[in-house]
Design a protein that fits this description.
About 35% of the residues lie in helices and about 15% in strands. By secondary structure, it is α/β, with parallel strands linked by helices. The chain has an eight-stranded parallel beta sheet. Helix 1 runs parallel beside helix 2. It is globular and about 50 Å long. Bound molecules: phosphoenolpyruvate.
């Protein structure tokens, strides 16, 4: 399906991978890419590893010349200072272009509320990092200064039960009409190389956010390949 705007693929590694297995993933991806490079024009690929791995992986991506950008999985609501364990926007700014904010796992396990999430969005803006704001339904509050939103129904995350592309497209339509400032709506929840084409074929969706399917380099490569083919397929 021909698109006039880029299609996003945002891989979320969550709390997975040691330094060694993260480097191995890059070596595997490099091998796959050299064997069969993909035409990724019209596709933006962003990987969100643990913050721990960002320094190593940003160097590797340059060394291997892979077409990947980086995102953080979270950002501190504070600029800097006595906030033990937090990673701030100014610390992330040289390493990432994007950050997830408000992922349902952070809302659930870290009791993140809307006022804290607004502070995180503000810190991202100060640091020049683009927030990918995660919501679990069309009714949720979205800060004014967000342009990219990921619709991720909780029941679909990590369950293997993906939302249909038709339903996800309907929610994307509702989000766009409620929040005209949004430029990009992506869907996340059990996206794999086997179902990703249905989301590419849904005009209201501008991308996907695979978690589990980004952990294996071969499966992630295959997912990217499916997207590159589908965005060029005649409608
Ligand atoms: C996610 O990481 O937000 C996610 C949607 O995970 P999964 O693809 O594994 O459901």
């Amino acid at each position: 399906m021909a698109r006039t705007t880029p299609f996003y693929i945002i891989g979320n590694w969550k709390s997975n991978k040691t330094v060694e297995s993260a480097v191995q993933w890059f070596q595997d991806m490099q091998t796959l890419w050299r064997k069969e490079p993909l035409d990724v024009s019209g596709v933006i690929i962003i990987l969100c590893p643990s913050t721990l791995h960002l320094t190593t992986l940003t160097s590797l991506v340059k060394l291997f010349t892979l077409p990947l950008q980086f995102g953080a999985q979270d950002i501190s609501p504070n600029l800097s200072g006595a906030f033990t364990g937090d990673v701030s926007g100014e610390m992330l700014a040289s390493l990432v272009d994007y950050t997830l904010i408000g992922h349902s796992e952070r809302r659930k396990y870290h009791a993140e509320n809307e006022s804290e999430l607004q502070k995180k969005v503000d810190q991202a803006a100060k640091a020049g990092i683009e927030p990918v704001y995660c919501v679990q339904s069309a009714e949720m509050t979205i800060p004014q200064n967000c342009k990219i939103v990921a619709y991720e129904p909780v029941w679909a995350i990590g369950t293997g039960k993906a939302e249909t592309a038709e339903n996800a497209g309907q929610v994307a339509g509702q989000l766009k009409s409620r929040h005209p400032q949004l430029s990009t709506i992506i869907y996340g929840g059990s996206v794999t190389h086997e179902n990703v084409v249905s989301y590419v074929q849904t005009a209201a969706l501008d991308g996907v956010l695979p978690g589990g399917a980004s952990l294996d380099a071969q499966k992630f490569y295959e997912l990217i390949r499916q997207v590159t083919q589908a965005i060029r397929a005649p409608t």
